[in-house]
Amino acid sequence: MTTRTIDPAQELAAFLRTRRERLDPRDFDLPPRGRSRRTPGLRREEVAELAGVSVDYVVRLEQARGLRPSAEVVEALAGALRLAPDERAYLFDLAHQRPRTADRPATAAAPPLARLVADLSPLPAMLMNHRFDILAWNSEMAALLVDFGTLPPSQRNAMWLCLLHPEVSRFHDDREHVVRQGIAYLRAAWAAHPEDAELTGLITGLTTHHEEFARLWAERDVKVSGRGLKVVRRPDVGVIALDFEVLVPVQDPDQRLMICRAADEVSQSALDRLCAR
């Protein structure tokens, strides 16, 4: 693979195209057109009509020809394309229409948050920044995944571990689903933090050198998952199903506190055996 760079204007163009092409014209009350459809989704003129902008404007946006749409136009496009809430926020970020903070991303956990992570024992918990860098963890999370303290800082990243760590990458029962969810979140984080060179470097490096990441990144899924179920398959204790919740500290909105609990008695027993070692 050749090295690629991430261009927000090109990404805005590609995102608009892919979201237009996924729409079913039958779901819209549009006037009939004389010519047959040769491509999937809505035509550019149909999106322009729904959004109340000119066809030329949509064409220029989809060709990344230097436009910066206003917040009103972004809102109209989001409605016309029927974007989900996370996709809508992503579009606003790509258009630089959402307020940003000037603070540098945290590279260490604030002491109160680090104490909170420890106090959450026996529930596995860890604190991450918006890049998925792992800033703090308790002993239960280390037992569940890996002893983060033995890793160099560059490898204390949840996405890196899931993709490249020789053991952790095999723990997830549905690995592609986990990777897909992580990429959908990273895409939203990247749009919200275009100034974060380390995040851009992480994404560029994985896109360049990891075929699975590159394939899923190209699908342009955008979603921020705040809760769900993860299934970890440990060769030493068996399957552990975990319900997880992700919380955002009010004073540190770019950080994520993940808390896990066993989803059933069998998983709790396996987790207890794992943590007792």
Give the secondary structure arrangement, pairings included.
Elements: H1 8-21, H2 44-51, H3 55-62, H4 71-80, H5 85-94, H6 111-119, E1 125-129, E2 134-137, H7 139-144, H8 158-164, H9 175-192, H10 197-209, H11 211-217, E3 227-234, E4 238-247, E5 255-262, H12 265-275
Antiparallel strand pairs: 1-2, 1-5, 3-4, 4-5
Helix pairs in contact: 2-3, 2-4, 4-5, 5-9, 10-11
In the CATH scheme, what's the topology name of the largest domain?
A: Beta-Lactamase
Number of domain units: 2
Shape: elongated
User: Could you state the order of secondary-structure elements as H and E?
Assistant: HHHHHHEEHHHHHEEEH
Question: How many angstroms separate the termini?
Answer: 43 Å
**How many DSSP H or I helices?**
12
What is the typical, i.e. mean, pLDDT? 89
Biggest sheet strand line-up: 2-1-5-4-3
Which stretches are poorly predicted, pLDDT < 50 over at least 5 residues? none
Give the percentage of residues in beta strands. Answer: 5-15%
Please describe what this structure looks like:
InterPro entries: Cro/C1-type_HTH, Lambda_DNA-bd_dom_sf, MLTR_LBD. By secondary structure, this protein is of the alpha+beta class. It has two domains: 87 residues, Orthogonal Bundle (434 Repressor (Amino-terminal Domain)), CATH 1.10.260.40; 165 residues, Beta-Lactamase. The chain is 44% helix and 13% strand. It has twelve helices and five strands. The chain is elongated, with a radius of gyration of 21 Å. The mean pLDDT is 89.
